[in-house]
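Self-study notes.
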Amino acid sequence: MKVPRRTDIDVEWLREQKKLGRSDKEIAKELGISSPVIGQMRAKHNIQNSVKSPLNNRKRVIIDPTWLVEQKKKGRSDKEIATELSCCTRTVFLKRKQFGIGQTYHKTRVDVTRQQYDDAHQPP
């Protein structure tokens, strides 16, 4: 099959394929061209993308950096924070990286002498 040029693609046919719910990738594969070419054709001729992506239904999560630092200082995991925010752990992870917040916060180490340790752990 000869690879069609953009000018060879029937715009009405493309419009009909999108109405049928076919993806750019499926149409491009049938025509032997790349899917970005189909996307460019759709943009040029105002053809809406009828295929609904699950990514389009995502909600935007806004995380305050100060709040996130507080949560990490409390020892909360990314999973616990994500559950509270109703988002995925990757979102929390990426926000931490964006704000330069480390994975966990550790309490300052306290040096204890052997005698102090023994005194604190003696049976009554």
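Second protein, same conventions, sequence then structure:
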Amino acid sequence: MARCGNLSRRDSSNACVTYEVFESSSPPRVAPQDAGDLGFRLKESEPDVEWAESEHRVGFVRPGGPAEEAGLKVGAKVESVDGHDITKSLFRYSTLTAIEVGASLELGLEGGSTLKITAAKKP
């Protein structure tokens, strides 16, 4: 079996998945399995909604977690991560939110507000 590259990992079907790299002053990204906990999850899209039309709405905020401490609320619409527009790309969202424990990122929310969340160790 061929080896995956430095920015790739094998997924559940054993295929190499390559992660996007962004040039910015934001914290370094890591593979999802190595990422810290941000304390929230997005709501899953309805099955009949095309991916390009889906919204990045917060579906769960863990009590006592980093997102709750930052003030994130269930139902908030996430439009950017560290200034990168993620409205049309779930892959870009997943890549940008995979940060090391102790690193922070800024979520841009619908209406123009922002929140800074610092990743913690996974519970």
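Instructor comment on the second fold: Residues 4-10, 17-24 have pLDDT under 50 and may be disordered.
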